[in-house]
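All the exercises in this workshop are built on plain-text protein records. The record below serves as our worked example for the rest of this section.
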Amino acid sequence: MNSSSLHPSSLNHVLRPLAVAMLTLSLAACTLGPDYQRPDLPVASEFKQAEGWKPATPADALQRGEWWRLYGDAELDALVARLNVSNQNLAAAEAQFRQARALVRGARSQLFPILSGNAGVTRSAQGGSRSDSTSGSLASGVGETYEAGLSASWEADIWGRLRRNLEANRANMQASAADLAAARLSLQAELVQTYLQLRVIDEHQRLLDQTVEAYARSLRLTENQYRAGIVPRSDVSQAQTQLKSTQAQAIDLKWQRAQMEHAIAVLVGVAPSELEIAERAHIPALPAVPLAVPSQLLERRPDIASAERQVMAANANIGVAEAAWYPDLTLSASGGYRNSSFSDLFSVPNRFWSLGPQLALTLLDFGGRRAELERAEASYDQTVANYRQTVLDSFREVENYLVQLRVLEEEAVVQREALEAAQESLRLIENQYRAGTVDFLSVATVQTTALNNQRTNLTLLGDRLTASVLLIAALGGGWDAQQLEQAPVLSTTAP
């Protein structure tokens, strides 16, 4: 074969007209369907329950995104970092985002020509054929054809169908990225809530252990007084009942704590047997939560951003449906070499080429295109309604958690006063018991009241911590919709 006879530029006169036609049609193309505009929303200037709310300092503390650091707990920070890397629900959401991103790349590729190459050999015969017994060669009825060539095709996006499809896929990808952020925020909030409740249980455990020790001392004192004939046997029985009842409460906390520890293990992507959180007599302080105005939720909540991007995708799909009423124009070109002999295949006499447009239009579909357009328009209306409902739900959540935090704070003030009164009453009744002026039943009653007030005080603190986490999550957790304009930072699953 003479390699000098192979000239790649020999197809230029075939592909050049195709390129010129592509450029001309691209410049003349239009885009069908409505251009996207964000739906109108009823947004108030401020939250109803925000009156008297004290803003946090600094006010932009949530803008960095690592909102859980407001609780100032290094162990909590480490657990959230593990969740961001190893949580399996988060890994599934991340994989879903990668699927949406791949669809965008596929939709973008449809805007460009498809270039393919082919090479092959074909053996064919016409009529009868036989092998020459003397020479072993094929009879003249059998022949071989060698072929090598290139082909290109391009669908001219005259009506913007492909561009609208790309727009819809890009919006779906951004919705998937927002869904990933929403899943991450939800899982982070679940972890922080569980961890804080575990620390509250640790404080309950410490309180009950101290109370058991105090009740044990009271039992010994009562037994000594009984042996001295100062108190009746019923006081000893009452002291024993109180001690054992409190011990049972302390034991009951162990399975509750274990369940929360197991939940945290699953959230960070490990088996419950592989995680152990040591008990600690410290509850993270209740943080001051930076408060946003209602309009900021539109940019700071990922679920709202996802719903809004779904509206954008549905709007673009209307243009795709409208384009079905217009003809599709495909330009194709092919060229190459074909000959019955491979040795001189790549030579000018064996060259072939073809170029031509193809116009396709559906003439009759008995209302199929009209039905698809109506479906696309109805789907858009549905996504708009879902978007508005998501926004309204977000306003409701923030208002709920604001009023919950305020009411719980007021309740905590009264509860602390009740606790102080119960502790003072306990001090007085114990002095009276030592003086022999009251029986042990009176002491036990006041001790139980004091213990219940202490536990209620801890429960209120846990409720306030949980409400603060929910409020931060309802405010978006420091996330911002501008992150959708960039490639989101994705987690990787740890082995």
Observations:
- Residues 110 and 224 are 92 Å apart (CA to CA).
- The chain has two domains: 1-30+120-156+328-360, 39-111+160-326+367-485.
